[in-house]
Amino acid sequence: MTDEEPDQARHTADEPASTDLTHTTEGGDVQMVDVGEKPESKRRAVATGKIRIQPSTVEAIRADEVGKGDVLSTARVGAIQAVKHTWETVPMCHQIPITNVETDVDLDDDAVTLTVTVETTGTTGCEMEALQGVTTGLTVVWDMVKAAEKDEDGQYPEARIEDVRVVEKRKVRVDRD
Amino acid sequence: MTDEEPDQARHTADEPASTDLTHTTEGGDVQMVDVGEKPESKRRAVATGKIRIQPSTVEAIRADEVGKGDVLSTARVGAIQAVKHTWETVPMCHQIPITNVETDVDLDDDAVTLTVTVETTGTTGCEMEALQGVTTGLTVVWDMVKAAEKDEDGQYPEARIEDVRVVEKRKVRVDRD
Amino acid sequence: MTDEEPDQARHTADEPASTDLTHTTEGGDVQMVDVGEKPESKRRAVATGKIRIQPSTVEAIRADEVGKGDVLSTARVGAIQAVKHTWETVPMCHQIPITNVETDVDLDDDAVTLTVTVETTGTTGCEMEALQGVTTGLTVVWDMVKAAEKDEDGQYPEARIEDVRVVEKRKVRVDRD
Amino acid sequence: MTDEEPDQARHTADEPASTDLTHTTEGGDVQMVDVGEKPESKRRAVATGKIRIQPSTVEAIRADEVGKGDVLSTARVGAIQAVKHTWETVPMCHQIPITNVETDVDLDDDAVTLTVTVETTGTTGCEMEALQGVTTGLTVVWDMVKAAEKDEDGQYPEARIEDVRVVEKRKVRVDRD
Amino acid sequence: MTDEEPDQARHTADEPASTDLTHTTEGGDVQMVDVGEKPESKRRAVATGKIRIQPSTVEAIRADEVGKGDVLSTARVGAIQAVKHTWETVPMCHQIPITNVETDVDLDDDAVTLTVTVETTGTTGCEMEALQGVTTGLTVVWDMVKAAEKDEDGQYPEARIEDVRVVEKRKVRVDRD
Amino acid sequence: MTDEEPDQARHTADEPASTDLTHTTEGGDVQMVDVGEKPESKRRAVATGKIRIQPSTVEAIRADEVGKGDVLSTARVGAIQAVKHTWETVPMCHQIPITNVETDVDLDDDAVTLTVTVETTGTTGCEMEALQGVTTGLTVVWDMVKAAEKDEDGQYPEARIEDVRVVEKRKVRVDRD
């Protein structure tokens, strides 16, 4: 069994939708979720996303990487820091002990794909952390290549961040089948 | 003329691509861009993006909004704070005086669209700030509705952040034609 | 018995007062308290306080709440974030795992009362966290209504924060009688 | 004329109260106030407040002060840092250049009074910064003396923060009469 | 045996040096180290360092200390805060529970020596935390005495931070002999 | 003339030393320095320092640099972030607009030397920022190579940070002769 919060699964048609918003009370007020009763276990989440940029910019990153790799390593640092800061940036998140962060970068012809894996021993899942790692890491790439992406009018006609998803979320060491 | 950095426009075919990566030195090292010589002026950037979620989740947000609106107002707060923190989250960004932040939320049948407008009187553009506002605000929405979006296996089959773009970047009060 | 630190109770007449300042060494230097030997247990603290404002401002908040509730929900977010940041704002505080934060708001004729409940599984109490939640949440209310509270001279003749207290501090699940 | 925002003065009976909440839009959404058009000038705000504690605790602070003064100097540092962090802790605040912070501490028989003066050259007032300095500095005092203030049940029967007010808010060098 | 990470000891001649850089992957990418499998235990690290300043400046600090001691107590606060913030300032560090911080200051004729002891119950060592405490605390001393150290040209001919070392790193309660 | 604060130069024999501690009041209390009256100008500070490590570790860094350079680029990012965060880490520092940060790394046989240049248009000097950049960047190097530097007992017999100095501090565009 992999679902860590079976009682919070997607609502079905005959349930009132409002009960699904666990960050708001029945009265509608914003709240954190009480995790004091939850058991600690090892949890893992993987998120991914991509930034679409011009092929020539991908080439510039690739060329740079042969030399010092600073564009991508700065993006990795930005992603790792964003993971650790999620409890600050996403207001209702708890601060959980992050035990591992992995960042994988793939260069396509016209895109950079960033995949961030986060592991925690805390009492809540860590998919928000993985998502923050992905979106921030991709924004760092954008920042590092922005001169190359701007058109003559100073705009970004092609750059965009897309397809940011949670590709896996589970308790580690629990069989998924 | 609206282009604030004409000398950093998109490279053309006969220019070496590497000159476009202004955040890396000729030797390939990561660096901040010197903005000490740049004139101060009023700048404005608008970014937008959306989170695709289930129609029933949009309904839950909408119902909540009639009551207290905490999902969306927490997302707004998260977006505004992310704008102000961009100098920390995006390593090569300067800290600039943010004079205004506007957040606009649109609810579609199966998506929430967030548009963030940032204005500054600083010496650099503020599109990274607007992008951080959008991606963080959308992640906050995700966090607030995650119980509703999870399937029985604890996964998020439908939720995704997409189409995050800079829709406008200019010096304010300069005609664009 | 509910007192978590019996050896640090209020001094009696025949004890030298100086031994009570656990954040200063015998030599008078500032220090953190060593919590490495303390057992982990579930602890809970409740603090409360109020901001006194004009009746017309309370009405404006109330009217707003019927619409979107952003004044109070922003105050709640500010309070929750302040709780989580106490280890930074109060220099000698340890960073403890916050497992739950509840915020309760009461509107009186001429005041807003905020009560913040904090729970932790850490090795120290969390009343400083609850106090920081209360004072920051009330300051956020002040910030949100400041235009309404200023007199024609730009001053705040009536607004004040008062009666900020710890109303309860205990280990959870321990009988208090 | 000392009022820096004459158009935001306290509403009168015939004005609708809702227009006074400048941090919410007409639609009721939370927002920052646009300060891009405001002139820069030198502004100053003074806030004050007190923590009521037992006479014996005041004596302990006083005794300590003769030695090393760490209780009060830690409170001063906490207050100054809180002033500088107000743009983070109060969500709708702008980050303004703080040019000066003064902290004054008075010891009464059963209370510590903290007065914080903040000066800025920014485009908005700095009374929220002064208030955050006062409430945080007083919380630091509480934290430093908490062992002395707890009763045998671990509670704080007498400690409380009270009378936190803005005592002055003005543009510097403007005559007040 | 005190070595907590025997498999990460200093490489010998016949091992490839590159395997020692645990913060870079085999492919050379920056990464955090996975600590999810490591047992929790009580760890302790002591770092020390000194700032060399003019004898007259040491005298000024000493004189001040007799009065209020603010120079050194501000340095202590800065050191303690730096210890707690190491997970932010050193990008690949994990956030670990700091259970104790001790700061010791020695005044020599022409130097201030700061020793910082950090204890944690986390899964990694805390020597980076101790080092950050030392270097930041010494920088705070520099900041507090900078007017006294500047020559007539505004330069610092004599001030320097030196000899910053980890003097001890071990699991607590393990015999070292 | 390059000295930006002639009235704060190193005291001479006939001046009382205590007047030099500008961060403490005459009464000995800690304080920020009022910079509201100071003119804005372009200022620049250069600090340098080195970490002494084993020759084999320098080789490992060098080998890595040929590949991806992540050790040094992470150190650069750490240094740049530390520069921008100095107003938080050094309690009495003002937050000033950092317009440029340059990081230079030299690899010697048994040491890494880091030089950080900071420029600002603010009203105070930026040598504390440069120092924080140097000490943090060097600590990041230490963190990245710690497995290689530990001996079989888990200690660091050779690693140390030393010779951290301000090598230049001036208003830019002012002749120094």
TrEMBL record, chains A, B, C, D, E, F:
Catalyzed chemical reaction(s): (8S)-3',8-cyclo-7,8-dihydroguanosine 5'-triphosphate = cyclic pyranopterin phosphate + diphosphate
Residues annotated as domain Molybdopterin cofactor biosynthesis C (MoaC): 32-170
Residues annotated as binding substrate: M92, C93, H94, M128, E129
EC number(s) recorded for this UniProt protein: 4.6.1.17
Transmembrane intervals: none
Region named Disordered: 1-42
Highest taxon in the source lineage: Archaea
Keyword terms of this UniProt record: Lyase, Molybdenum cofactor biosynthesis
Molecular function GO terms recorded: cyclic pyranopterin monophosphate synthase activity
Example GO biological process: Mo-molybdopterin cofactor biosynthetic process
Active site (catalytic residues): D143
Pathway terms, separated by semicolons: Cofactor biosynthesis; molybdopterin biosynthesis
InterPro entries in the record: Mo_CF_biosynth-C_arc (IPR023047), MoaC (IPR023045), MoaC_sf (IPR036522), Mopterin_CF_biosynth-C_dom (IPR002820)
Function: Catalyzes the conversion of (8S)-3',8-cyclo-7,8-dihydroguanosine 5'-triphosphate to cyclic pyranopterin monophosphate (cPMP).
Family the entry assigns: Belongs to the MoaC family.
Assembly mode: Homohexamer; trimer of dimers.
Protein's name according to its UniProt entry: Probable cyclic pyranopterin monophosphate synthase
Gene field: moaC
